[in-house]
Design brief:
244 residues, D-Maltodextrin-Binding Protein, domain 2, 5-stranded mixed β-sheet, 9 helices, elongated
């Protein structure tokens, strides 16, 4: 009996020690960018990034705490060690790589095409030949429409005006960044029953998690978790929930 008790006690000690060694990663996010990260009606931080990192934490063997942080000081706080990482729709750029390290890319948030819900046979811009597509003036979306012969570009001062014209049938498509498009199509009560996103992003704007330069411990944990989630394609369910 004493031997059994001793074995159980040893197992409890090992389990407790393992739990105490679990790393908590504190992540800053500017929760003003739906559907990637925002504050819901219950005052909780929610969104695609939040769900993805929670899955990555489970897969990578760490815990995560999100802190809502204003964008204008978010990277300075990272450099000062106020938190361990930034996950807030951060595009990986060569300029940013000089002052911080990035995880593996977890999503391509490039340009996508929005059409009316009833539209069929349209998955790419080329399918709109002979028709008009809209975008905010001076954006990547407008530039992409210009590249497609036979598609008429109509520009707008605000993307919302293009979306309204599409919903009312005055144009046949709108091109915008994936998260912005998803916000209009998935979260806006005026449009979610009238519009849809078709196809895949056709430009490349990769998001990653930023960590302090040289913080390999945190970076390796995040990469381990993200890779497991992406390899298992668990992100597809999140895309269906938040971005489609």
């Amino acid at each position: 009996m004493k031997k059994i008790v001793l074995i159980l006690l040893c197992a409890l000690i090992v389990t407790t020690a393992a739990m105490s060694q679990t790393t908590k990663i504190v992540i800053a996010t500017d929760a003003t960018w739906p559907p990637m990260e925002y504050i819901d009606s219950s005052k909780q931080i929610v969104g695609y990034d939040i769900d993805l990192m929670n899955l990555a934490a489970q897969a990578g063997g760490f815990t995560v705490e999100f802190r809502n942080t204003a964008w204008d000081g978010i990277f300075a706080g990272l450099a000062n060690g106020n938190y361990d990482a930034v996950m807030s729709s951060v595009t990986i750029t060569d300029e940013r790589k000089q002052s911080m390290d990035f995880s593996i890319p977890y999503i391509n948030a490039g340009q996508v095409l929005i059409v009316q819900k009833a539209a069929s046979g349209i998955t790419t811009l080329a399918d709109l030949k002979g028709k008009a597509a809209g975008a905010q003036i001076g954006t990547t979306g407008a530039m992409e429409i210009k590249k497609v012969s036979g598609v008429t570009l109509k520009t707008y001062d605000e993307l919302g005006l293009a979306i309204e014209d599409l919903a009312n049938g005055r144009i046949q498509g709108v091109v915008a960044d994936t998260p912005i498009a998803a916000d209009y199509v998935m979260q806006n009560d005026n449009y979610k029953t009238r519009l849809k996103i078709v196809g895949q992003p056709f430009t490349e704007e990769l998001y990653g998690v930023a960590v302090k330069k040289g913080n390999t411990k945190v970076l390796n944990l995040i990469n381990k978790g993200l890779k497991a989630v992406l390899d298992a394609k668990k992100d597809e369910a999140l895309k269906n929930k938040w971005l489609r």
